[in-house]
Design a protein that fits this description.
Elements lengths: L1 H26 L11 H42 L4 H32 L1
Helix pairs in contact: 1-2, 2-3
């Protein structure tokens, strides 16, 4: 299953990287009117928005998985040694907050990329 995901992600990355070149070839030498944006510019903006959405989604999924692993480890540790629950709570919250901060930073950067394009 992991190999299938690697192949799918690689093909998607190649498609996104090659799309502006393919669009420029498809447009040929036809000059767009001064009022219309070029097909390459429109495609580039669309790909930027799609990439930012994909990046934000991956960041959120990764952050959620990270926070769930932190919680899982803390709950398992408390189940093994219940008297240490108080000592484990603060480091768990701090670590989860750091993961969430990184996740939110990635989402903000992705959304700024959309606004910039």
């Amino acid at each position: 299953m992991r190999t299938t995901w690697k192949i799918a992600v690689t093909l998607a990355a190649l498609l996104v990287a090659a799309a502006p070149v393919l669009a420029a070839e498809a447009a040929g030498s036809a000059e767009p009117s001064s009022n219309e944006p070029s097909m390459t510019a429109t495609l580039g903006k669309g790909l930027a928005i799609m990439g930012a959405g994909l990046g934000a989604g991956v960041a959120v999924i990764g952050g959620g998985l990270g926070i769930s692993r932190i919680g899982q480890g803390c709950v398992e540790s408390i189940a093994r040694q219940p008297e240490a629950a108080g000592a484990m709570f603060a480091p768990m919250i701090i670590t989860a907050a750091m993961v969430e901060g990184g996740m939110l930073f990635a989402v903000v950067v992705a959304l700024l990329a959309v606004l910039r394009s």
